[in-house]
Amino acid sequence: MGIIFGLLAALAQAIGFTLLKKSYEELPPSVAFLFDACFGLLIWIPFALVMGFNFSHIPLVLLFALISALLSEAFVFYVLSKGEISITGTIFSSYPIYTILFSLFINHEKLLPWHWFFVGLTILGTIVVSWPEKITKQELKKKMIILWGVAGAMAVGLSDSLSKNVIDKTSAEAFLFALAFAQVPVALVYLKLEKYN
């Protein structure tokens, strides 16, 4: 069942990335993120309240929620606006590898040798997917767009590792509650930066 759910999640993510990229033809990424922030308010707040959490945890999770809103949310919308989604989205989807690597240092997690093998295999796959057919200056310049995907993957990996640490100390519900509110000022600043208000 885990494999089936994993494949369904990958399919849903691919459809989501494609639709998001298509929406950029009409509206900039900052507006898409504003909609995401609004959905966060509508979904995460009621979810957190229904599940229940300790409100005294909010000050502790708020900083990490703000970091997550910046790195794991807003920056991803910006990254996916760069280049072809078939390349940027594929490279960005390697973010769990960066989560693993950052968690080694931030959360002091350990990997077994066979985990390292698959981490290396994924990194190698990322390189193969992004490698140009011919190594020319013009081809490499076009492939520089890959760096946006890598930057997005690294940002989410760092954010997820930091968030895991604070969620373990508090609760997922408290974090999601704070994240819903943290996304709003980030969305407004993002709109301002894109001069869309």
Please give a quick description of this structure:
This protein is mainly α. The chain is built from nine helices and no strands.
Structure description:
With 197 residues, the chain is mostly helical. Helix content is 80%, strand content 0%. The mean pLDDT is 84.
Rg estimate, integer Å: 18 Å
Largest sheet: none
Can you tell me the residue ranges where pLDDT is under 50 for at least 5 consecutive residues? none
Strand content range: under 5%
Helix segment count? 9
Order of helices and strands: HHHHHHHHH
Number of domains: 1
Percentage of residues in helical conformation: over 70%
What is the approximate shape? globular
Q: Overall pLDDT, averaged? A: 84
Task: Kindly report how far apart the N and C termini lie.
Answer: 45 Å
User: Which structural class should the secondary elements be placed in?
Assistant: mainly alpha
Number of strands: 0
Summary tags:
197 residues; mainly alpha; 9 helices
Question: What secondary-structure arrangement, pairings included, does this model have?
Answer:
Blueprint lengths: L1 H22 L5 H23 L6 H22 L5 H8 L2 H12 L6 H18 L6 H7 L2 H24 L2 H22 L4
